[in-house]
Amino acid sequence: MKKEPGTLSLQRISVALATPGSRTQSLDAIAGLAAIHGAQVSYVFIEDADMLRAARLPFALEVCRATNVVRRVDSSEIERGLRECAVAIRKLVAETAERAGARWSFEVVRQRTATAILELAKRTDVTVFTAATSLPYQGPVAPEVAKNTDHFPAAGESIVVLVDRSAASGRAVQVAHSLAEMHGIAIHAVVAAGTRPGLDRLNAQLRRTTDLDAAHIQSLYRPEFSDIVAAARARRPVAAVLPITLVEGSSERIRELEDAIDNPILIVK
After folding, report:
1. How far apart are CA 13 and CA 11, in angstroms?
2. Co-location of 163 and 198 in the same domain
3. Cβ atoms within 10 Å, residue 132
4. Can you state the angle between helices 113-123 and 251-260, rounded to 10 degrees?
5. Into how many domains does the chain fold?
6. What is the pTM of this model?
7. Exposed, middle or buried: residue 95 (CB in 10 Å: 0-12, 13-18, 19+)?
8. Which residue range is the domain that position 167 belongs to?
9. pLDDT tens string 68-86
């Protein structure tokens, strides 16, 4: 892609991490993005409040995958496992951010996962999460779990950016461009508008500021949010970048993204 006009200004990037299944392969890329733009990375470990409430119900049971043995859920064991996971992940993100030369912080919050992610997105320039953020708790986790740091993304893969008529959309394109430049990969755009002229203007703007051709742009006229998500998923992206305007009204849209896209999702304000 051609260089985006203007300078992308990022002051804070938040990364939502949750229960022990949280995937960490994007941490190097996000720390690198923060270092390039002088942003601070705020890593937020989310203890899913819904999961913990369910664990305290008197009829809550768990099944051992290896033996099929059924037993009562021990909420204190879950709490202990979450504390251990938070310690392991804090160590990992410290190593990752310091290796990239990025400023960083770490905190633990207890909240519904989708709600926490949406609140982060409303006060942060870029918020990153993955589908695995909301995986159910699988039992105590050893620090080794947090050491799976496959590099993201790999050469030859692509990023999909969702485009609407908001100013945040322009910044989303810049963020996608910055990641693509860092890793030498392609970008695909899914463009959504409520009018045909609006679609035409967005497409023309993309062509002016990038070198995307028709094969890399999909236009959607008056789409439902599910249509936009399906179009993004069909591109099989290693990461999806979207403006906050597409999700700011509903935490359920966060869940819809988690259900549809397995790889990192970046919300840009």
Report:
1. 7
2. yes
3. 18
4. 110
5. 2
6. 0.84
7. middle
8. 158-268
9. 666 666 677 778 878 888 8
